[in-house]
Amino acid sequence: MPRSVDVARLAGVSQKTVSRVLNDEPYVSADVRRRVLEAAKTLGYRLNSAARALASGRTRSIGVVALGTALHGPASLLIGIERAARDLGYALRVVTTVEGDPSGVAGAVSSLLDQGVDGIVISEPIDEGPVPIEIGVPVLVLGAPPSVAAPRVLRASVRAHDMARAATDHLLDLGHKTVHHVAGPRNWHGARDRLDGWSAALAGRKAPQPPVLEGDWSADSGYAAGRELAKTPGVTAVFAANDDMAIGLIRALVDSGRRVPEDVSVVGFDDIPIAPYVTPPLTSVRQPFDAVARDGLSLLVHAIEKPDQAPPAAAGHPVDLVVRGSTAPPPA
Amino acid sequence: MPRSVDVARLAGVSQKTVSRVLNDEPYVSADVRRRVLEAAKTLGYRLNSAARALASGRTRSIGVVALGTALHGPASLLIGIERAARDLGYALRVVTTVEGDPSGVAGAVSSLLDQGVDGIVISEPIDEGPVPIEIGVPVLVLGAPPSVAAPRVLRASVRAHDMARAATDHLLDLGHKTVHHVAGPRNWHGARDRLDGWSAALAGRKAPQPPVLEGDWSADSGYAAGRELAKTPGVTAVFAANDDMAIGLIRALVDSGRRVPEDVSVVGFDDIPIAPYVTPPLTSVRQPFDAVARDGLSLLVHAIEKPDQAPPAAAGHPVDLVVRGSTAPPPA
DNA sequence: ATGAAAGCGCTAACAT
DNA sequence: ATGTTAGCGCTTTCAT
Questions:
Q1: Would you call B68 and A47 a contact, using CB atoms and an 8 Å cutoff?
Q2: Pairing outcome for strands B284-285 and B148-149
Q3: Which H helix or E strand runs over B165?
Q4: Is A56 touching B (CB cutoff 8 A)?
Q5: Contact at 8 Å (CB) between A100 and A69?
Q6: Tens digits of per-residue pLDDT, A179-211?
Q7: CA B26 / C1′ C13 distance in Å
Q8: Do A144 and A159 meet the contact criterion of CB atoms below 8 Å apart?
Q9: Is the pTM value of this prediction over 0.85?
Q10: With 80 as the cut, is the pLDDT of residue B145 above it?
Q11: Which helix (H) or strand (E) is A214 found in, with range?
Q12: Which domains, ranges and CATH numbers included, belong to chain A?
C-alpha cells in the first residue's frame, strides 16, 4: 500500500503538502495541487484512516444504535441516517439491539465508544429507559425524549403528534362526528404520540373519544381491528397508526360489506410507497424520515465540529397529509 | 482520556503487559492480569482503536454494501449481518446504495476501503453488474453470483431454488395437477431463483407450466394477481414468491368467492413473523437470514484471519417448509 | 506557499 | 512471565 510519502516523492513535494492537498487546506498552488492529485491517482493511493484518526483525534464516523427490526419505520429511518451521514462526510457504524434486552442500548453505546466514533445516534422506537453510561461525545436521540448523559444531547423526531392530529382533523373536517383509532403497540413512543395527537384533535372539537383498538403494526392486526369495527355501530371514520394496518382494516371493512370511503373513511400513517396503488388509494400522512435524519445529523455534526456554538434551531417539517380516495364525507 | 501507560503505571507493570492483558495474550500471571483489569476499570480506560489499527494493520471491522430498502428480506439480512459480525468480534460499517445507480456499488466499496475495513460484504438483491474496482480485502457476496475482483471472494446465499422447489413439490404432493406462480420483480435474483425452482419442480413431475404473474413484493400486488387468478379456470394451487404477496393473494381469492385452502391452496415464502397469525395460517418456507449471515461472515472472518487456509465448506441449511392451514388437497 | 520535526497510542519484534 | 525499543502513517506545530 502506498503511503503519503510515496505520493510526495513522486510529486516532488513534501509529505505535508500531500496532506494539505488531500485535506483541502489552503495555501497550495494550483500547480502543486494538480501534481499531487495526479501522483496519488497513479499510485492508487488512499489515505489511511487509522493513522489520520490517531493523529487528529477524530474518526469522521458516527455510530448508530438501532432496534434490530425490519419494520418499515425503523428500517427506513436507518437508511435515512446512513445517507445523511454520508452526505455530511461521515462514515456510519451500526449496532443493533434486541427488543426487551435491558442492557442492550448501554452495551451498544459502549461498543461504539470502543470503536471511537465522533458522535452517536440513538434510534430506539421503544423506550428502554435511561442509558446508564457516560458518553463522551455528542448524542442525537431520535424520537424518544432523551435520557442519556453526554456533553451534548440533541433531539430530532417527526412531529407525530401534529401529524396524527392533522389526520384526525381531516376526517372531522369532512363532517365525521368522531374518529376511531387503531393504535400501534403501547410501548412504542411513536404509537403513543399518534394516540395523543388523535385524542387532542377529538378534544379540540369536543368529539366523543371512542375506545382504542391496539394492533401490532401488521396488516393482519389491522384486519382483525377492522372486523371488530365493522361490528360496531356508528363507525364512519378510522385513523390507523400505520399504513399496513390501514390496508388490512380496509379489507376487513370491505369483507364485512362496508364500502370505503362511502360508508367508512380510513386514514393511514407513513405514506408507504404502495399507498397510492391500493384500492381505494390510501389517504395517509407522510413520515419525513429522510428529512428528520438529515436535520438530526446536521445538528449532531454541528455539535461535533463546533462544540462551543449553540446548535442551530431545528426547522420543523410541515405536516404532509396526502389526501387520496380512502376518505370522504360520512354517509348522509 | 487515559492511555495504556496510565493503566500500566497504576498497576505497576509495563505498558506492554497492559496490552497483553487487554488482548488476552498468553504469559500473564493471574495476579498481574487482575491488577491490570482493576486499574483499567478504575481509570475508565478504553483501548484506542485507531492506534491499534495503525499499529496492527487491522481494524477489526467489516464493511457492508447493502441496497437502501426497508423491504423485509434485505433489511432482515442486514440485521443478521450486524449480529453475526458482532458475535465474531467485528464492528460493522454500512454503506447503502440506491437502486439503478450504476456506479453505486463500486462507490460504496471504495468508501469502505477508505475507511479501512478488513473485509467487505456485498448484499445486493438486484444485480447491478460487475464491480469495476480492485478490492484488496476478502469479499463476501450474498445472494448474487460474485463478479468482483478481490484476493478472496466468498459466497453465501439461501438455497432459494431448493426452497421454491420444496414449496412447489409440497403442493404437487397434495395432489394438485399444477401450481401457479406469482413471482417477484424480474431484476431481483432472489425472484429468479424462486421462479427457476418452481419451474424445475413442475418439470420434475411433468406438470404443465402455467404463465407467471409478476408482482412487486407488496401485498397489494399479490391482491391484483389474486384477482387475475380468480378469473382463471383450473387454478387450485399458487406459490407466491413472498408472504406479503401471498397474504394479498389470499384476500383476493376470498373476495372473489374462492375458499382457501378448500378451493385454492397458497404457499408463501419468507415465513415472516405474522405468517402463523393470518387467516388461514400461511404455509411458507422460512428464509434462514440469520444462518446465512452467520455462515457467510464466518467464511469471511476465516479468510481475513487465516488467509492461507482453504475456506471451510459451507454447511448448507436444510429447507424449512412450514406447513400451516393455507394448503390442502385440491377440490375433488 | 511550503517544509521539518515531533508526536498520536498502540502492537510487533526482540530482549531478558 | 515480563520489559524495551521501534515504528504504524498520518496531523500538528513551528519554521522558513
A1: no
A2: unpaired
A3: helix B160-173
A4: no
A5: no
A6: 999 999 999 999 999 999 999 999 999 999 999
A7: 16
A8: no
A9: yes
A10: no
A11: strand A213-214
A12: 4-47 (1.10.260.40), 57-157+289-317 (3.40.50.2300), 160-287 (3.40.50.2300)
